[in-house]
Design a protein that fits this description.
single chain, mainly beta, Immunoglobulin-like, Maltoporin, Chain A, 22-stranded antiparallel β-barrel, five-stranded mixed beta sheet, 51 strands, globular
Length: 798
């Protein structure tokens, strides 16, 4: 019996080995034929010649690399993507084969075109949950504030993603704070993604290639944040021909230059922007105007070098630098102030195709964010600065074996340096000596494995495990206080000494159940840890908000999220839709203590915080039409977000400051004349932000005290706005293209609340000494920001 069993196992094993031994891989790199840019998420299908009802599929990765393994035989290879001509090729798969393809854009797309593959039903067939892509063409067609296309404002139109306020690029995803979003530019972290106090984003649309956001079902190769990942990829540079494009607007100008250094071997791209409204206005201001001498501008620069060493090796060298400056001085010249902040980022990425089934991606990156304020009065001046700096190394191996799996293994290391608020005072005659504010240093390490496979044709699984390790290290001085808040001692840690370390496992799971050809049910569960924190006093994210690491006092944030959604396409894949419900539990959230003075440099910054928990739940609805002359989408989110801190609001739960009960966005576009004239409209509606208000006054020992409502117990009025735009392509020839964009922001001039302030008037009547009276009235005033704003911008390309 034992011999028969062993013989049977041996026979089965030998049969499987022979079967898999006769499987071969076709692989290569997919590029855009018009500019040589690599293309990601492109469907590649192998259809057996003998049975055209079956197919074996795969998708290209972020470097355009695809790999599909199948039994030996003759196949029809098809490459499908919306807006590009379908590639059809016949191959005889008798050995591992490498074929690179260049996809040609469709010049004319008719209403009758039926697109299959990635563009048609990938949202239904994939195991990805909560991942959405905004095409750069869609972003550029949207109405824009002052005519400037903005990536972050565009993703705020998607369900589950809320804006930080009027015209603000800060965003909140499914009840998470702005610091819980991981923002990546070419795999490099961007810590402050806003210009001009958040009214514009740091992403220049002319230099952007792809925009993807993941709000649930986060794979194991992403980590470090609880809420979302915004992954922005820069263009690599045109490998085929030189190209110059740019635009002039009311307050912006931009220019992008790209082209081959050596055709199909090396290319570059350089893109820059600058505002100039301050320079235009200053000559027309009177010398006595309070705005005379005011500076308010930003500029940024993107650059990238793309080098194809050979068929297996490729290098990308990229960088970003951006600065904001806001300054003013009094008409007498006695007082002045200047605020400066910005990001600097650089990355070196190496792609290596080891063999048809192994792909290696290694990235070294550097990022720095800093903020500085200088204020002066006569001979006195004060400067305050803060920032964060990272050095990161990440390597990832993708393995697509003979069996239908895609394994991704990776390691990432980051060295963090945090600079909390540091102050310096110049008293004129001599400098005022202030205590040193130590930087915070930390190591962060992650090791992960992720696999996506079909357990059955109707059941796809994406599962992974991420191990994260974090060390808070010296040099550092910890201040010790007694129960009365008096500093009594300090502990000095040596350079490199481990003060506190954390180790965690983060499981990730997403599953897709195909219940019909065009309908699927998706579920996901993720556990995330976040070791970095940003605590804000204001209701919007500002450049003054300081980043801090986890320490022995500040524990890592932890988040559990589950989601369940139904995804369906209909009418020949012209429409796609989904309904997605979610629940998120968050622990170790951080807020400032009530009444804290954040400029108190006698204590460590992390001693100013209190800690609590939060939860968020809701349901999202989405309907999109992506084909034809009439396109657009409608999104609606119903959500609830609450927080609870033992030391805030008497320990009772309260709604978060970014809690929104209802959030609606409608985006519609119509092409009046093919490739010539189009219009678009955006309408948004959102429940008002929460706020805490004064509700009474009383005297204590002769001093006036204010009584406030419970935390965030009141709401502002709802926010809603209609924007319109018209895009007119004046000339479109082979070597030259020019167009005009007309936009109207806030068409019906809605006075949306930006913030509320309170003014108190007192009246003490002593006309009757025998019976003096005291009267106090408080009135609320609404501050609105943008009225109706028409704009025009001229765009060109040659």
């Amino acid at each position: 019996m034992i011999r028969k069993t062993v013989a049977t196992i041996f026979l089965i094993t030998a049969t499987l080995l022979v079967a898999f031994g006769q499987r071969y891989t076709v692989s290569g790199v997919l590029k855009d034929a018009s500019n040589g840019e690599t293309m990601k998420n492109i469907l590649v299908a192998l259809v057996p010649v003998e049975n055209t009802t079956q197919s074996i599929t795969g998708f290209s990765n972020q470097a355009g690399f695809y790999s599909v393994t199948a039994p030996k035989g003759r196949y029809i290879l098809q490459i499908l993507y919306m807006g590009y001509k379908t590639v059809t090729d016949t191959i005889d798969l008798q050995k591992n084969t490498t074929i690179n393809y260049e996809l040609t854009p469709n010049v004319v797309i008719t209403d009758e075109v039926v697109v299959t593959g990635q563009a048609a039903d990938h949202n239904v067939t994939s195991a990805q949950v909560g991942k959405m892509e905004m095409k750069i063409e869609t972003i550029k067609a949207l109405p824009a504030l002052f005519g400037e296309v903005d990536v972050l404002k565009s993703i705020q139109l998607l369900p589950g993603i809320q804006s930080g306020g009027e015209g603000n690029t800060g965003f909140y995803v499914r009840g998470g704070g702005p610091d819980q979003n991981l923002v990546l530019l070419d795999e490099t972290t961007i810590y402050n993604a806003g210009h001009l106090f958040g009214f514009f984003s740091v992403f220049n649309a002319d230099a952007v290639k792809n925009v993807e956001i993941t709000k649930s079902g986060m794979p194991a190769y992403y980590g470090g944040r609880l809420a979302s990942v915004l992954d922005v990829t820069q263009k690599d540079g045109n490998m085929k021909k030189f190209e110059v494009d740019g635009g002039l607007g009311l307050i912006f100008s931009r220019l992008t230059v790209q082209g081959p250094i050596k055709k199909d071997k090396c290319s570059f791209i350089i893109s820059g922007r600058r505002t100039y409204i301050d320079a235009l206005v200053q000559p027309f201001l009177k010398p006595t105007s309070p705005l005379k001498g005011t500076k308010f501008y930003f500029y940024d620069l993107n650059a990238k070098l793309n080098i194809v060493i050979n068929d297996k090796h490729r290098l990308f060298i990229g960088g970003y630098y951006g600065r904001d400056v806001y300054g003013f001085k009094s008409s007498t010249g006695r007082t002045n102030a200047q605020f400066r902040w910005g990001n600097a980022a650089a990355s070196l990425r190496w792609n290596y195709i080891i063999n048809p089934q192994l792909f290696l991606n290694t990235t070294f990156s550097f990022t720095n964010y800093d903020f500085a304020t200088t204020m002066g009065l006569d001979v006195y001046s004060m400067e305050m600065s803060s920032g964060v700096r990272d050095y990161s190394l990440k390597t990832e191996l993708t393995y697509t074996p003979s069996i239908p799996h895609e394994f991704r293994f990776g390691v990432q290391y980051i060295f963090h340096t945090f600079f909390p608020n540091k102050m310096a005072v110049d008293a004129g005659v001599s400098d005022l000596s202030l205590p040193n504010v130590d930087p915070y240093y930390a190591h962060e390490l992650a090791i992960y494995a992720n696999d996506e496979f079909d357990l059955f044709p109707w059941w796809k699984i994406n599962c992974g495990l991420r191990y994260s390790h974090f060390e808070f290290i010296g040099p550092f001085t910890r201040y010790v206080f007694n129960d009365q808040g008096v500093r009594t001692d300090s502990i000095v840690y040596r350079p490199g000494e481990i003060i506190k370390q954390y180790n965690h496992l983060e499981p990730r799971l997403s599953m897709r159940f195909q219940v019909a050809k065009k309908t699927s049910i998706k579920v996901s569960y993720t556990l995330n840890y976040q070791y970095l924190h940003q605590v804000a006093l204001a209701t919007i994210s500002l450049p003054t908000d300081v980043w801090m690491p986890s320490t022995e006092i500040v524990k890592p944030q932890m988040g559990h999220q589950v989601s369940l959604g139904v995804y369906q396409n209909f009418y020949k894949d012209m429409f796609e839709s989904y309904i997605d419900a979610y629940y998120k539990q968050m622990n170790n959230l951080v807020e400032y203590k009530d009444g804290i003075n954040i400029q108190d440099i006698t204590q460590n910054a992390d001693q100013m915080y209190v800690f609590g928990k939060g939860w968020s739940y809701g349901v999202e609805f989405f309907l999109k039409k992506g084909l034809g002359r009439f396109t657009g989408f409608i999104g609606y989110t119903l959500s609830f977000t609450q927080r609870q801190f033992d030391d805030l609001n008497g320990g009772k739960p309260f709604y978060a400051k970014y809690d929104r009960r209802h959030d609606v966005s409608i985006n519609l576009g119509y092409e009046i004349i093919r490739n010539k004239l189009s219009v678009s409209a955006v309408w948004v509606f959102a429940s008002g932000n929460t706020m805490t208000i004064p509700i009474g006054y009383y005297f204590i020992a002769g001093s006036l005290a204010t009584e406030y409502s419970e935390r965030n117990a009141y709401r502002l009025d709802p926010y809603h706005r209609l924007d319109l735009s018209l895009n007119w392509t004046i000339v479109k020839k082979k070597r030259f293209e020019t167009s005009l964009n007309f936009s109207v922001y806030n068409v019906y001039n809605r006075k949306n609340p930006f913030f509320i302030f309170f003014e108190t008037n007192t009246n003490f009547d002593t006309s009757n000494p025998q019976n003096p009276t005291f009267d106090m009235t408080t009135k609320a005033y609404q501050m609105s920001l943008f009225p109706i704003l028409p704009s025009i911008s001229w765009n060109f390309k040659f």
